[in-house]
Amino acid sequence: MNAAATTRDARGAAAQDAAALDAAAQDAADRAARFLDLENAPFTLPGSRILVRRTDGRVTVRLAEYERRLDDCVVVRALRVFGADGRVAEIADVRPESIAFDGGATLTFDGQRALSLGGGSRWTVELTVPGALDTTHAGGASGAWAPGLPSAAEASWLATGADDLLVREVGGDTVVRLSFPGGDGAQLRIALGASTAENAEASHASGTPHASALAATTSVWADWFARTPRVRSDLADLTAFCWWVLGANIVTLPGRGDARAVVPSKIGYVGLWQWDAYFIAAGLRHGAPELAREQLALAFGFPTPDGQLPDVVHDDGVLASSDDLPPGDRDTLRRAGSSIADPSAPIPLTKPPLAAWALRSLEGLVDDPAWFDEAWQTVAHSQEWWFAHSDLDGDGMPEYGHPYSSGLDDSPVFDGELPVASPDLAAYLILQDDLLASRARSVGDTAAAERHAARAERTLALLEAMWDDAAGFFRSRGAGTPLAAETAVSLLPLLTGRLPGRIVSRMLEALDDPARFATPWAIPTVAARDADFSAERMWRGPVWVNINALIAEGLAVSGHADRSRELIEATLRLVQHAGGPHEYFNPLTGRKARTATTSFGWSAALCVDLAVRASG
After folding, report:
1. Whether residue 303 sits in one domain with residue 184
2. Number of domain units in the chain
3. Which residues neighbour 239 within 8 Å (Cβ) at sequence distance 6 or greater?
4. Is 251 a domain residue?
5. For residues 381 and 307, what is the distance between their CA atoms, to the nearest angstrom?
6. Is pTM beyond 0.90 here?
7. Domain C-terminal end among 198, 224, 250
8. Count of other CB atoms within 10 angstroms of residue 569
9. Are residues 170 and 268 in the same domain?
10. CB of 540 within 8 A of CB of 524?
11. Which residues contact 440 (CB under 8 A, 6 or more apart)?
12. Which residues of the chain have pLDDT under 70?
């Protein structure tokens, strides 16, 4: 075969590969679109803070801000579209790239900080914005208002091709009504953080009429969906939606050089929480390992001098102690803080030590040895912090000095006195020392390997001393006193893979007991027989995907691979039954708990991870 023929064949194969990739991306987008209802799943774009939702029957535009409720982040209170006949145009379809209204008009993104409405035959739009318009262009084609939000002190609208305008004040809000003849030249552009002049300049510079904005947004989502991991056919819909959630939850952090953080949820959790970053990276690694690495880089990027990793990395800084909270929250936190800690001193806030667990999952997927070397050093330093600064009673077993640091804020193990020695923390520390020892051996650091291995053995002995043989579970201790509550943290020592067989057998009995953890939809975070069990209250009974995933891993490393696979399949069925990756689930009904957030990052990421594992 000559060179020309070889080149033609290569081009043909590349074209076929590209076509297959495009088809796969389109298929994933179509599957995800089935879940997009503007309530549980808002309309948004990777990297953008804009959320379009349906609230009380109205389409609203809000911003995702750190530590602010969506009700306090309104940019457009109501957006209504009317058809050529003057009637309200109902939403006909919602896709990742657009919201289609009856009559053909569509809403899409025009970059990360603007929305574009256009297309169709004649249509009218009515915007209700909070407060008064600050300016109105002399030609009547634009206006601006002041949402006063961190991500958008200003906002503006710019109309192209409108042939009618009406502005009126209603109850302190401003209603803008614009009519358009339709077609490619008709566009309403809503821009955040921009005056009318800046909006016009951006629109002119980008040269993006509505059709071009729609094409660009479609391309963004197509690139994302092209990375969707391949799974079994019965898991394809759920996986596509979970992959959409991960893309939808990407925000940029301006205070961090526009770093990309995949937040727990744009509905209420806008920042990079350390624990969430670990679980989210576990899912992202299957299609976007570099983005997974970015999450760990942010989580590892701001340790204190003594090695503590912060609880949260956000727009304006980090949350690593009670001093990083607003004054009112700070006072409340200190009143609830450890009795051993000085109540006038800051309380360290972090998250459980699963850093090595997350870092291990990326090895072999990201080619950057220098970064891994530095990351492992950071993890080793953070491990030292737990033993040097969080062993609050000096018995060799670190404790949680505050519920925030556990990730299980409302668990009944924190109803008593602090600090709390908990079997989950012991298990994480053992696992982390084991992984650090393995890493040290791989780079020839025998002394470090022996040090980590010896400490893991000591911690394991302390953990086994927490086993209550009469009760049949590991008991947490509050300020040294054994606690009555039986919770799912008593199951997490399975992660060590080193428990005596007799203890593992008793733990399997607990998992099989309907009065304990064999609820209709398992695994509840508090045993059903426990006086503190609640099917709805956060961490007091509902099922969490991350706990299930960790227990499934624990079952596998403890010699019960079949039980692990069963739990993985049951967890995926739960999320399918509930309609998506919510924050937590009622263990009796298998539905979203009433107060749980929807489109939740770690639930989505771990469902992706579990679906890939189940499909292997």
Report:
1. no
2. 2
3. 228, 229, 231, 607, 608, 611
4. no
5. 5
6. yes
7. 224
8. 14
9. no
10. no
11. 446, 448, 449, 452
12. 1-21, 135-140, 204-207, 328-343
